[in-house]
Amino acid sequence: MYALQFDETKCLDCHDQDCLTKCWYVEIDPNGVREEMLKIARGEDSFVLRECVTCYGCEEYCPTGNHPFFLIVERQEAFGIQPVPSPLVQRAVNLGLPFRGEPEIKQTNGPVLNMAAFSELTPLIQGRLFEGLPVISTDGRKMFHYFCQLMYLHYGKSSVIKERLPGIIDTIARHKPTEVICFHDECYGTYTSYCPAVGIDVPFTPVHFFEYLYNRLMELKHLIRPVGLNVAYQRPCSSRLSPEKHRFVGEIFRLIGAREVEREFVGENALCCGGTIQGQRRQGSRKRAAAIQDKNIDDMKKAGAEVCVFNCPACLQTLGGMLAREGIRPVYMSDLCRLAIGETPAGWR
Amino acid sequence: MPLDTYKFHDLIHRCFRCGYCKFPTNWMDTNNCPPYARFRMEPYSCGGRLWLTRAWLNETLDWSEHLAEILYSCTTCRNCEIKCPLSFNVDIVNMVVAARGEMVEQGKVPPAVKRFLENIDLHGNPYGSAKSRRGAWAEGAAIERYSGQEYLYYVGCTGSYDTRAQNSSRALGVLLSKAGVSLGVLGAEENCDGNEVDKLGETGLFEMLAEDNIARYNDLGVKKIITLSPHAYNAMKNLYPRYGGDFQVFHYTQILLELINEGRLDVSRGFDAQVTYHDPCFLGRWNGEYEAPRKLLAAVPSLRLVEMEKNRDAALCCGGGAGNFEIDLLGGSESSPARRRVREAAATGATILAVACPKCLVMLEDALKAEELEGMLAIRDIAEILAEAGGTE
Amino acid sequence: MGTIYQELVDIVDAEHVSDRPEELYIYSFDLGTAEPHRPDYVVAPRMTQQVQEIMRLANREKVPVVPLGGGLSLAGLAVPLKGGILIDLKRMDSIIEVNEKARYAVLECGVSQAQLTSYLARQHPGLTHSEPGAPPTATIAGNVLIHGQGDLAQPYGFNSDLVNGLEVVLPTGEVCRFGSCAIGVSWFTNHPLPDMGLFFGWCGTTGIVTKLSIRLFPAKRLRGVGQFVVDDEELVPEIMEKITRTQMAEDVIAYSRAIPPFGMGLQHFTVNIAADSEKELEFKQELIWDDALGEYISRGVGGYLGFTRGLERPQISKTSDYKKGGGFEYVGSVMPIEKYPLCYRRGREISEKHDIPYTVTGRCIGAGHSMMFAWTYAFNRADPETMRQARQALHETDDLVLELGGVIWKPGTYGQQLIIERLDPGTRELMRRIKAVLDPGGIMNPGNWEGI
Predict the structure, then answer these.
(1) Measured between alpha carbons, how far is C242 from C248 in angstroms, rounded to an integer?
(2) B69: nearest CA partner in chain C
(3) Are B338 and B329 in contact (CB under 8 A)?
(4) pLDDT of A24-37, one tens digit each?
(5) What digits encode the pLDDT tens for the residues A189-245?
(6) DSSP for B261-305?
(7) A88/C294 CB distance under 8 A
(8) Is residue A205 domain-shared with residue A224, that is, in the same domain?
(9) Domain identity same for A231 and A325
(10) Can you give the pLDDT at residue A40?
(11) Taking all residues of chain A, what is their mean pLDDT, rounded to a whole number?
(12) Contacts C300 to A, Cβ<8 Å
């Protein structure tokens, strides 16, 4: 059985308690953080379990790599504290069940790009950046065989992840990939952060999508013409699991001549898109999400962003329309990169 | 033929006849399926045709000339495929064409279709005109014969024989030549491209035409082709590769736009008129080219482009597709698609209806006369408009 | 006097009259499970006068007449059960008048839902009509005459409640007008003349409506759909009650279906909200999601799924392709909202018994006065066994509607007979007399409401 390896002594020895003092959403006296975290670690109830909006932020803030967020979710489930109402949990849990036949397994014996649960976004992986790269999970009917399951952290359901994930990893491994480029960084975070934390083996090397894009752009450097756009970046929650790869955002922008506007809510201070928060069980969640979204978009506007660059399709789905109404164009990173090498992404005018 | 040997036997029953296919993309009326617009009786709707086809194939309904006419009245304009929300929509026209193929196979086609196909077989054109006169349109015009130039200028049957369309063939040839494009025509050596033959279900004849044309072009060293007609453009671009035809094919509006962008085409005299543009099905819905013709018109000084309510993928077909410019199963009424279309054009207040297809040109010109709109509206091919704007006319 | 065919040609024209097998074949079908019956003639008139002449001819010759609009009732209501003349009314598709100030539209009977939606969006963007979720070719008149409902049903009720006037050709050929137009003024109201609701719900057995005036409503600048979900069907009636109490929604629908599987067993709500400003939109959202439904969220039994701007109008339906076979039919009912849980559970049982993925939908009519509850059964037209199963499921559902205390909506002949069996004798007698007065020859859509 897989179990989270959480080291309580690291919290006892921690001087910063950044996990919750830096949290945007849980209101807590800095002097009480250690106590609350230790309560959680020891399996006692804590108000934090109810207040957590599941933004993943503490995974990045924790200076010791002790996985406070994974722990919170474990305890939410143990106490039956569902961050979202039960019908939403039921919907989500059923959503990840494959039901339209088995996937077609082709062995690649080389690197592959895994579209995971975003098969319908293959228009985003066109052109020279992806030339010659085999892709898995391109059939929308069968994409949940490749779904990393980490989404259930938002639903207080670690058990579902641990139950299903080994099978997903096995499906991917049957393609005999050497490296798996993860279209969604939640997959990357699953294989590089969650799996080691709970003891699930990953028999391939995950590659972050932005790292792949950066390396391909370097190979195609001769084609790059600066895009000359003022851009903001919407950092997704799952990026908190791989903060070391976040630097590729800036590296790519520099390489393609996109000017990253100066914002208050960037990097560690990035704001959640609100997609998860709006449906949560806590009173006022809808308004709370809307307030965060307003703050986020205002910040982009003030900074003069023309374009908001996305990593996560769920963030884009949540914020895309709102941004467009404010005159900021939502665009995926891969499309921005294609623009820089003279290609016209689908739907770009 | 029993239903189970029909290529689409597992698909054809999936049409519910909900009727989305009757509408244009803006839903403004139920007149965007040309045969349904013409007759307004259910058998002529897209769903009606599919249900009748199935009934004929499973022997619930006997073949009749009327049944054949219903099937052949479809202009393969593809409006139905744009509007149908179901996953089999990509094969709707194929289902009709396959049923026609079966009728051809059994020798059960309407007399006008039979004549059309025989003429192409015997004379290389649907009109039954002499092969030797195919190049006559270019007499007196400064257009070279093809002898290894960069482009073959393929004119097609309508551009070669129809006296009205000949004017646009000449205008385009002269325009391109004057802009310094290296091109030549085949004259009497040109043969039908076969697009309509394919859509009428005469696969054997189409194969012969395609293979014959491909062999001839290969012998001559043709690499790039400019077509006057979107129908030829469609056949050569999308169908010839199946028979080994490996050419770069362009519709003339795409080449002219390139010339304009490169500053090689003089349109400085301008064209002082309000113009509306009719999208040909085989350029628009079949090949996704909606912008090149519009950009060309927009580049002409003094020309004011206005859109009809049904434009781009919502355009109403002129009624001439799949041989109907000659077979004419949709003519003879104020409900004929071409007459509806010129009324729609006149409603914009434009004085010029611009086209980019010789079949549309002829169809709409005839409709204009029938509607007695000649004083208000004129039909011009884009090549003619550009020629006038450049002073080559 | 020539043959009936020739007389029809003389009345309309040769291109719009047929007695050929191809036309008779196509017009013999309903799109649902009803057995086909061939008409003897098909005619597509263009104007009221032609309809009158056809009726006189049919009366004289004692030939049945079947009026057809979009042909999308799916209950077999326009199948020529006893042959005769089928009148396809879709050529009569002019939008005669839109009055912006008094908010109504006068239409010919063949105007389709999508045609009016598109016309209003282009020519009168400040106005809208209550559009049903039917395919866009469904006609306004056909929908009104079967007591249809649309996406403004919550504030305004059934579409048949929104009629300002009618022009009707009687089975004997006379033309009658109802509403204010009957006294020669504009078509702005159906009141206050004596009530003559002789054509709604009669399934085409009392006359042919050739023109009608319907009410239009303000089309707000921002329109969109919010979604809510619960896992306990018992909560649906009280949630409907709470939403309608806010009076902030344009349309409230609860549904549950087996496909896609992630929603199976859950009850979803779609709530259409419209506003002219962001302020108004947020105000309405707050009242609905936070004030009315907040308690379900904090109890963890109801979930807010977000609000999507923009309404899909006309709606695109792919239901017919569920079984990859080009067919579906549903039983609709007008039902007290409190019956939702039973309707769902019993309907699901019927579907599962017949191996059909279940789909049930309840649309709120008025301020919770009733709902239109529908059970949908998809079938494969190429597989007679699935059609038989669907037909059986439909009949069982007709029985269920009455068992649960509802009324079958636009009943087919099976449902009509169930209703007739239960009909109050006085009402039945009055219906019989009305039918005898209006249609002495018994030519109008025979086979429907037979035996009253």
Answers:
(1) 11
(2) C22
(3) no
(4) 999 999 999 999 99
(5) 999 999 999 999 999 999 999 999 999 999 999 999 999 999 999 999 999 999 999
(6) HTT-S--TT---EEEEEPPPTTTTTTT---HHHHHHHHTSTTEEE
(7) no
(8) no
(9) yes
(10) 96
(11) 96
(12) 82, 85-86, 281
Q: Which of A81, A89, A90, A151 to mutate to test the interface with C (most CBs of C within 10 A)?
A: A90
pLDDT at B5 (0 to 100): 85
ipTM score above 0.90: yes
Query: In which domain, by residue range, is A18 found?
Result: 8-79
pLDDT score of C1 more than 60: no
- Give A321→chain C minimum CA distance, Å: 8
Find the mean pLDDT for residues C303-326.
89
Most C-contacting residue of B10, B13, B16 (CB-CB within 10 A), to test interface: B16
Q: Tell me the per-residue pLDDT of B302-333, one tens digit each, with 9 for 90 and over.
A: 999 999 999 999 999 999 999 999 999 999 99
**CATH number corresponding to C4-90:** 3.30.43.10
pLDDT at B1: 58
Q: Which two tokens stand for residue A150?
A: 């980490």
Q: Phi and psi dihedrals of B310, rounded to 5?
A: -100, 100
- Domains located in chain B, CATH noted: 7-109 (no CATH), 137-258 (3.40.50), 265-390 (3.40.50)
Summarize the confidence of residues A299-314 as an average pLDDT: 97
C222-309 domain in CATH 3.30.70.3450? yes
**A90 in a structural domain:** no
Nearest-Cα residue of chain C relative to residue A98: C261
Please tell me which of the candidates A90, A97, A278 has its beta carbon nearest to residue C231: A90
Mutate to test the interface with A, among C287, C304, C309 (most CBs of A within 10 A): C304
Residue A197 shares a structural domain with residue A286:
no
pLDDT score at A349: 59
Whether residue B16 and residue C26 make contact (CB cut-off 8 A), yes or no, is no
Count of CB atoms within 10 A of residue B101's CB?
A: 20
**Is the CB of residue C151 less than 8 Å away from at least one CB of chain B?**
no
Q: Is C170 on the interface with B (CB under 8 A)?
A: no
pLDDT over threshold 70, residue B388: yes
Q: Is residue A345 part of a domain?
A: no
Q: What is the CATH number of domain C319-411?
A: 3.30.70.260
CB contact under 8 Å between C15 and B20, yes or no, is no
Q: Which chains touch C (3 or more CB pairs under 8 A)?
A: A, B
Cα–Cα distance for residue pair C409/C201, rounded to 1 Å: 9
Correct CATH for C91-218 of 3.40.50.2300, 2.102.10.10, 3.30.559.30, 3.30.465.10: 3.30.465.10
Tally the domains of chain A.
Answer: 3
Q: How many residues does chain B have?
A: 393
Helices first, then strands: H and E counts in chain B: 17, 8
Q: Considering CB atoms only, which of B23, B40, B42 is closest to C136?
A: B23
pLDDT in tens, B63-119: 999 999 999 999 999 999 999 999 999 999 999 999 999 999 999 999 999 999 999
Residues 6+ apart with CB under 8 A from B23: B29, B30, B32, B83, C114, C136, C137
Pairwise CB contact (< 8 Å): A97 & C262: yes
Please identify among residues 373-402 of chain C the ones whose CB lies closer than 8 Å to any CB of chain B: 380-382
pLDDT in tens, B212-258: 999 999 999 999 999 999 999 999 999 999 999 999 999 999 999 99
Cα-based angle C276, C280, C281 (whole degrees, multiple of 5): 90
Task: Check CB contact under 8 Å for C285 and A286.
Answer: yes
Put simply, the answer to whether A279 touches C303 (Cβ < 8 Å) is yes
Q: Is the CB of A111 inside 8 Å of chain C's CB atoms? A: no
Reduce the DSSP state of residue B6 to 3 states and report it.
coil
Of C21, C137, C314, the CB nearest to B22: C137
Asked if residue A74 is part of any domain, the answer here is: yes
Instruction: Tell me the shortest Cα–Cα distance from C290 to chain A, in angstroms.
Output: 7
Burial class (CB in 10 A: 0-12, 13-18, 19+), C336: middle
Q: Are C116 and C107 in contact (CB under 8 A)?
A: yes
